[in-house]
Amino acid sequence: MPNTDNPYLYLVLDGMLRLYTPSGMMDYVAGQYSLSKIDTPLSGTVLAFSHEQDFLAISLEFTTNEIIAVVLGLDNDLTKKIMEERMEEQAMSAADNEVLRSIHRLFAAMNQAVRSDFLRENIMREIVYYLLCGSCGKQFIQSLVNIGRPEEIYEANRWIKENFRQPFTVEELAERQNMSVSLFHQKFKSAVGMGLLQCQKRLRLTEARRLMMDEGKNVTEASVEVGYESLSQFIRDYRKMFGAAPKEDLSTIQKKLKK
């Protein structure tokens, strides 16, 4: 993985990658990307190689100033929609696809006979714009303005990772840290980049995916093991996070692994 403190985008071109991050494990197939400042990877493992038996990925590094400049240039209504999570899913999905097209244009421009820093800088701004409008936009902005990292919040995050299978409330964890619910929620979201229950849901779903992939658990077994009481709710959450229902998602991954 890239060794830099700057924000970077890591795009899988061919093959399949598993990243281990502070919030859990995530798998990426060709055409999917991760953003470092949201969940900086601790390590990565190649799960599947390309037809040529190699693994291809692109790392694109930004400066914080480049990203902030684009954020400041956004229309106020657009920034508000991103931060209040009012962007339509279809629009976010389209923006994610435009990220890939813009990266292709960037590398094509770099190989032109007459290279242009002007073109490069503007395509980079275009990429940042689509990242902000995409599915990770709000978390991307929050990660850049995140200054404080209170130890008590990360202690709570550690506790969640160890106990995410069992039900708990924000009130219970706030009481453990001797904070009001509103202050605890605000500090946790600022430090970790997502809400408390969102963090628990992500841990449950990534673990369920691992159980089905690595241990052969069926959908019902995996959902129960990670703490879901409703199978239909599990499938809805799974589809929202991974873009497909569990069986369809696993089938796609297994096809990738057999290539």
Can you give a write-up of this model?
The structure is a single chain. The protein has 259 residues and is an alpha+beta fold. Helix content is 58%, strand content 13%. The protein has helices spanning 64-73, 76-83, 89-110, 117-133, 137-145, 151-163, 170-176, 181-192, 196-214, 219-225, 231-242, 246-258; strands at 8-14, 16-21, 24-29, 33-35, 43-48, 56-61. The strands form 2 sheets. It has a 3-stranded antiparallel β-sheet, with no helix packed on it. It has a 3-stranded antiparallel β-sheet with strand order 3-2-5. A hairpin with a 2-residue loop joins strand 2 (16-21) and strand 3 (24-29). Helix 3 runs antiparallel to helix 4, helix 4 crosses helix 5 and helix 6 (151-163) crosses helix 8. The radius of gyration is 19 Å and the shape is globular. The two termini are 24 Å apart.
User: How helical, in percent, are the residues?
Assistant: 55-70%
Low-pLDDT stretches: none
Task: Determine the strand fraction and express it as a percent band.
Answer: 5-15%
State Rg: 19 Å
Mean pLDDT level: 84
- Silhouette: globular
Please give the alpha-carbon distance between the first and last residues: 24 Å
Q: What does the main sheet amount to? A: 3 strands, antiparallel
Structural class: alpha+beta
Helix and strand succession?
EEEEEEHHHHHHHHHHHH
The side-by-side strand order for the widest beta sheet comes to 4-1-6
Number of helices: 12
Number of strands: 6
